[in-house]
Amino acid sequence: MRLEAVDRFARGDKTEAAARDLRVTARSVRRWGRAWKQGGADALCSAGPASVERLSPAQWKRLERELRRGPLGHGFDDEFQGRTLKRVRLLIGRMFHVGYRIQGMWKLLRRHGWSAQMPVRRVPERDEEVIEVWKAEVWPQVKGSRPTWVLTSASRRRPVRG
Question: Which positions fall inside the Winged helix-turn helix domain (predicted)?
C-alpha cells in the first residue's frame, strides 16, 4: 500500500484522494509522503515484524511437545486441566529461561496456531445434582405459565380501551 502511495505522490495526487482510494487515513498518507520525500521509496519499505520471536524453531518444537503432554505432566494438578497464558509463560520460563508478558504469550501462541484455554470459574461447593433438581422442579413453579394473549399498549399516556 505504501509503495502504491509512492506512485500517487509522484503523480501529484491529493492526500485525501490517495487516502480514500487506499482506504487508509489521511494522516498515514501524509506520514508516508514525508518519509518518501526524505528517503525515497526505500524509506517506505517494511521494517519487519514489530516483535522478534525469542524462541528458536528447535525450542518451539520442544515447547509444542511439552504442551501436548498437558498441564498434569508439568505439575498442575488442580481441577482445571487446560493451558492458560500464565501456565505457558511459566513453562517457557522454566524450560528456556526466557521471559514473556501475558500479551506476548497470546501473540506467540496465536502465531503458531495454538490458543489459550480459559478456566471455568466455579465455586467448589457447587452441587450439580441440586442444581438439576431446582431447574426441573422449582424453576417451572417460580416462572409460572405464560399469560394468554392480552390486548396491551406500549404507550404510557394512552391505555388500551377494552
Answer: 79-137
CA-based radius of gyration for the chain: 30
Number of domains in the chain: 2
Whether 8 and 37 share a structural domain:
yes
State in Å, rounded, how far the first CA of the chain is from the last one. Answer: 67
Give CA–CA dist 125/38, Å, rounded: 67
Which residue from 83, 115, 89 is spatially nearest to 104, judged by alpha carbons? 89
Distance CA 146, CA 133 (A): 22
When the pLDDT of each residue in the chain is averaged and rounded to a whole number, the result is 81
- Cβ burial of 8 (10 Å; 0-12, 13-18, 19+) is buried
User: Is 31 in the same domain as 57?
Assistant: no
* pTM > 0.90: yes or no: no
- Report yes or no on 161 lying in a domain: no
Cα 124 to the center of its chain, rounded Å: 29
Q: What is the spatial distance between Cα 156 and Cα 43, in angstroms, rounded to a whole number?
A: 65
Q: Please check whether residues 87 and 129 belong to one and the same domain.
A: yes
- Check whether 75 has a pLDDT greater than 80: no
